[in-house]
Specification:
493 residues; SH3 type barrels; SHC Adaptor Protein; Phosphorylase Kinase, domain 1; five-stranded antiparallel β-sheet; 18 strands; kinase; tyrosine-protein kinase; EC 2.7.10.2
Length: 493
């Protein structure tokens, strides 16, 4: 066969020299490369004709039966190196057993990648030695679990990592032009063939290959959790006990409000639980949560944007100052609706005030920051830290003994009513926190604002009863305020 091919295809003499070296027997089977030879193939000898293109890997699309000695029989799925294109044929060397070379019609072949690895359960791309070790030692894997990964230290090579009884063993799989090997002298056309061999002959590497590594399941993706990169902060809206509030854009188009949490002041261990509570709350009078960014710092809490800002600032603005008692009473009713919903779900706000109620373009009011106060560190949210605790909005039992309840929220709601009907005026103006707490404990109560109806002021006084159990529930306050609105302003109902 060798003389026939050398005579008919003289321009491939350099390939014949590699396949049939001088003195090699003419048995029609290419010899394996010297196991001690370099992994890089030697360049072809210079010839008067143009150099051939680099070898291309092909896959047989159809069965083909050789019709003469120059042709090569192939089966569908065979992998071949195409050495030279000759008209409608490709002179190729088959990689699978038995290895041989010859002409194959080009219509029967398709270009292939060196290895189709992505679908193999044992192949893990993009991981290193440490990650492979961590995965194999996880409870899901037992001794005999294995994986193949790209080598970290030798580009183009692979590593075989196997879990043994005492740990994880790693083996280098080297790549050569004609195949791959784990041990010199044992060359394989593909990783799959190499693994098949060592599964049957595992004693050669002292590590049984029993089953592919079971990947660690990633935690389920939280639909609320979004990458911080999706949000662009544009304009600072304010700053409070919990952090800064910014107007921003989500994915470049949706206006949102972003609360950037001050992690130094927060009990971050409880933040995830509190965020879960926020996700479960749905009411038209509560600010709507859009997303959270809780992986890393700072934590973002992303909500709908209320363009008129917080109720306290809005009431003090020229637009707010121009509003009459009917709209002020509407604000009170809306806040009572939102707090009644929280009351039904046994959620304690702890920081109810006009600054934590937001106003939209349509003068809709929504309660914000519900529950976040419980996350503040005790040394920040306490009477001993001066102005940090909102003493003027806090019920005496909460300010003195840290006893927070839905009834302490009712006290705060009474103060919020005072803010509403004084157009955002600070309660207990002129008194310090300490003086305020002293006066309230002695029985002092805020006076009736000039614009406040007498029956609404009566509800304020009910909210400020000394005994928490004597204060009304938010459900009752909602009904009383709605009834007062219907009586005082029937045209608006």
């Amino acid at each position: 066969m060798e003389p026939f091919l050398r005579k008919r295809l003289t321009f491939l003499s350099f390939f014949w020299d590699k396949i049939w070296p001088v003195g090699a027997p003419d048995d029609g089977i290419p010899g394996l490369p010297d196991p001690e030879a370099s992994a890089e193939p030697e360049p072809p000898a210079a010839e008067p004709r143009s150099s051939p293109e680099p070898a291309q890997l092909f896959r047989a699309l159809y069965d083909f039966t050789a019709r003469c000695a120059e042709e090569l029989s192939v089966s569908r799925g065979d992998r071949l190196y195409g050495l030279k294109e000759e008209g409608d044929y490709i002179f190729a060397r088959r990689l699978s057993d038995p290895p041989s070379a010859g002409l194959v019609p080009i219509t029967h072949l398709a270009k292939a990648t060196p290895e189709t690895l992505s679908d193999q359960p044992w192949f893990f791309s993009g991981i290193g030695r440490a990650r492979a070790q961590q995965m194999l030692l996880s409870p899901a894997n037992a001794p005999g679990a294995f994986l193949v990964r790209p080598s970290e230290s030798s580009r183009g090579d692979y590593s075989l990592s196997v879990r043994a009884q005492a740990g994880v063993r790693h083996y280098r799989i080297s790549t050569e032009a004609d195949g791959l090997y784990l041990q010199k002298g044992r060359l394989f056309p593909s990783l799959e063939d190499l693994l098949t061999y060592y599964k049957a002959n595992w004693k050669l590497i002292h590590s049984p290959l029993l089953q592919p590594c079971v990947p660690q399941q990633p935690p389920p993706q939280d639909e609320w959790e979004r990458p911080r990169s999706e949000f662009a902060l544009q304009r600072k809206l304010g700053e409070g006990y919990f952090g800064e509030v910014w107007e921003g854009l989500w994915l470049g188009s949706t206006p949102v409000a972003v609360k950037v949490i001050k992690s130094a002041y927060m009990q971050l261990a409880d933040l995830a639980k509190e965020i879960q509570t926020l996700k479960s709350l749905r009411h038209e009078r509560l600010i709507r949560l859009h997303a959270v960014c809780s992986a890393g710092k700072p934590v973002y809490i992303v909500t709908e944007l209320m363009r008129k800002g917080n109720l306290q600032a809005f009431l003090g603005s020229p637009e707010g100052q121009a509003l009459g008692p009917p709209l002020l009473l509407s604000f009170a009713c809306q806040v009572a609706e939102g707090m009644s919903y929280l009351e039904e779900r046994r959620i304690v706000h702890r920081d109810l005030a006009a600054r934590n109620v937001l106003v939209g373009d349509d003068l809709a009011c929504k309660v914000a920051d519900f529950g976040l106060a419980r996350l503040l560190k005790e040394d920040v949210y306490s009477p001993s830290s001066g102005s940090k605790i909102p003493v003027k909005w806090t019920a005496p039992e909460a300010a003195n003994y840290r006893v927070y309840s839905q009834k302490s929220d009712v006290w705060s709601f009474g103060v919020l009513l005072y803010e509403v009907f004084t157009y955002g005026q600070c309660p207990y103006e002129g008194l310090s926190n300490h003086e305020t707490l002293q006066q309230v404990t002695r029985g002092y109560r805020l006076p009736r604002p000039a614009s406040c109806p007498a029956e609404v002021y009566g509800l304020m006084l009910e909210c400020w009863r000394s005994g928490p159990e004597e204060r009304p529930a938010f459900a009752a306050l909602r009904e009383e305020l709605s009834a007062a609105r219907r009586r005082l302003h029937p045209a608006l109902t």
